[in-house]
Amino acid sequence: MGVERCNKTPEKTSEAISSCRFMLCVMVVFIHSIIDAKDADGVSVWVITIMHYISQVLCTIAVPGFMMFSSYLLFFKYKNSVDIKGQYISNLKKKFKGLLIPYVIWNLVALIWLFGRSVLKGDGSIYIPNIIETFTYVPKDGSFGLYPADGPLWFIRDLIILNILAPIIYSILKFKPKIWLFLILAAMVVFKMPELLTFHRSVPPFLLGATLGIIGCDISSTLKRMYGGGILLMAASSFVGYIVIKEFEWGFSYIVYNIFVTSSLFALFILPWYIQKKNIETLQQLSKYSFFVYAAHIMIVGYIGLILRIMLLKILPLDYAFIITYFLSPCLTIAICIGLDVTMRRCAPRLHSVITGSRI
């Protein structure tokens, strides 16, 4: 890549990051809106297939996207800093307030919610395991890949750990970053990552964003200038290709999936070039609600889906009730979360500042 050095996040790259946050957050809500198999008895295969490929394939770029953007911004600052140690300490202070404190508070809220739910079901056993899993990586029943009480916040936990390790990562990647970029991209495409804890979904995109930040180019402008719509075409075609391969049960489907995820991550950077300016500004405004929606939705979306299904099953056939519920419940959940966020901003601004890490 021919790159130009710059001392602040370039305009188009900044637009991409800020405008994509809310869209990625919507994807996360869709991931958790998929209906459990035990609740889908009698539902047609076409309904299950649509929900699966949206929630379990298309939307899985969400957390890697968050991770890539976070590391890009962090390592872009490192690359331009004359005092790496001072930058590191400053960053940790910000992450303590912006990530760790909200992480602890939201998980405590989720623990209370889980315990209350288990009491209503007559089963209090969920309480102890989730205390352990919230603040550690201790395996439950001999399995790894653990989630905290507020499940989606595993991303925050991993991000905190990777931020602590950032100086070590920087000291390695700063030597020949373009070579590291090639090796990271090759690994992300070729290898099926071992499912060790949740790191297989957080480390590769974090390293990708870190390398791009160290290279220090205007990613959005450079990709648009050199590759244009080719990246978008690759993301779309690999998504369709993955569906075809899975349906026909051909081999190496994970490589096609990896190509989809990797190309989609780059596509996020060039999205502003294909979106009208007024729509970018709307997405940037919505991005301020992203953290609250991300943290709170898991405690709401299941109940919204249940209520909708019960109501729609009275007037619609099973398949249509389920598919409408699938698309409508995330939208209602997001609207409720935004309403709660706005209300808290007005009525309890200090509390809102604490639980969202002072995001405004």
Please give a quick description of this structure:
The chain is mainly alpha-helical and 360 residues long.
Describe what you observe in this structure.
- With about 350 residues, the chain is an all-alpha fold.
- The chain contains 17 helices and no strands.
- The longest helix has about 35 residues.
- It is globular.
- It starts with 10 loop residues before the first helix and ends in a 5-residue tail after the last helix.
- The N terminus is likely disordered.
Features:
single chain; about 350 residues; mainly alpha
Strand fraction equals under 5%
SSE string, helix = H, strand = E?
Answer: HHHHHHHHHHHHHHHHH
Question: Helical amount among residues, as a percent range?
Answer: over 70%
Total beta strand runs? 0
Average pLDDT score = 83
Rg, Cα atoms, Å: 21 Å
Gap between N and C termini: 35 Å
The largest pleated sheet is described as:
none
Structural class: mainly alpha
Enumerate the spans where pLDDT stays under 50 for 5 or more consecutive residues. Answer: 1-6, 137-145
Global outline: globular
Number of alpha- plus pi-helical segments: 17
